[in-house]
Amino acid sequence: MALRLLSRFAWIVVGGLFIFSGLIKLNDPVGTAIKLEEYFEVFSSDFSTIFLSFKPFALYLSIFLSTLEVVLGVALLVRWKLKTVLWLLFLLTLFFTFLTFYSAFYNKVTDCGCFGDAIKLTPWQSFGKDVVLLVLILVLLFTQRHLLSLGQMNRGVSGAIVVVALLFSLVVSIYAYQHEPFLDFRAYRVGANIPKLMKPSAPLRYQYVMEKDGKEVEFDVYPIDTTYKFKKMVPLNPEDGPKITDFNVWNDQGDFTKEMFLGNRLLVLVKDVKKADQESFKEINTLLAGVEKSQTPKIVPVVITSSSSQEFDVFRHEVNLSAPYFFADATVLKTMIRSNPGLLLFRNGVVVEKWHYNDIPELLEVQELVK
Fold it and tell me: What distance in Å separates the CA atoms of residue 181 and residue 235, rounded to the nearest whole number?
């Protein structure tokens, strides 16, 4: 009886977790691809440069692996080809367990991206999660007879459900790629107050680790005794720290970060001019021309790029982009929006709306948002 309950518990948890994990990633396939690229770069430096050859296929691998998670989770719950599905789940989890252990042990990738931006796990938490999952799958492999005793679903019906899950996953991922994610868990989501998120939500407290006579001693207040040697500071409330620490905008004249938070700003983000969709600038230029002529409400157009000034000067003449431009870190721009180019509308530093280049708005829509 206990073994039967354990088997059914593992069945529901494993199936549900794989579906949840896959859907979270399919919600943001570009974000998952960015995480895969990070792994490829780590492995190329640690093992072989051959891993760099996978980078151009990161998006396809993102969609494939995320879809596979959903399909296997659904197949497990409907008990379709149970033995095969369990072995595939075991091998997939074993592979992920190796990745998360390697990341944790060598401190390579600080966030595995297991649940996208929705749930952040430390490397060791990710490894622990995979170990538990591996144990549960082993339980299922040795007790699958208890799942079959639930009553076998018609094979045609269960197969049809798996096919529907496959098609649904592909539709979700393709739509999310061609637009913005359905659910935005990033710090720059609509409604986010960027200046506020750049400040701690509460005074940060630290524990001071000191050394004296070969022994480490911890203090909540920095000791005045000069015989103690400082070792390190450990934050006691890191959750109260700034949620955004790397948003900086500049040009040759200096830092313009604070200026981005003044009034209404329409930001055109161009991460990489070599990969930017040039056709979309016809609509973007039309929008910017209307914004510049509009006085009520006043909206200031700004272009931000992570390309070099030489590259961007050539590019902006090619696409006839005539707005003041600034620079920002490429990782920040990737986090702000998943399209290249993309638009963000700021009102006193608050994200009012954001648009993929496939969804360039009309001038009236932008004006209505800041009235």
Answer: 33
What's the CA gap between 114 and 140, in Å, rounded?
Answer: 22
**CB burial of residue 343 (10 Å; 0-12, 13-18, 19+):** buried
- Amino acid at the residue 335: T
- Please measure the distance between the N-terminal and C-terminal CA atoms of the chain and give it in whole angstroms: 64
Sheet holding 342-347, edge to edge: 254-255, 250-251, 325-327, 299-305, 264-270, 342-347, 350-356
At residue 119, the 3 state secondary structure works out as strand
Sequence letter at residue 47:
F
293-319 residue pLDDT tens: 887 789 999 999 999 999 999 999 999
Domains of the chain: 2-178 (no CATH), 206-240 (no CATH), 250-369 (3.40.30.10)
Q: Are 69 and 21 in contact (CB under 8 A)?
A: yes
List the beta bridge partners of residue 265: 300, 346
93-132 b/e with 16+ CB inside 10 Å = b? beebbebbbbbbeeebbebbbbbbbbeebebebbbebbee
Residue 21's Cα: distance from chain center in Å?
13
Low-confidence residues of the chain, pLDDT below 50? none
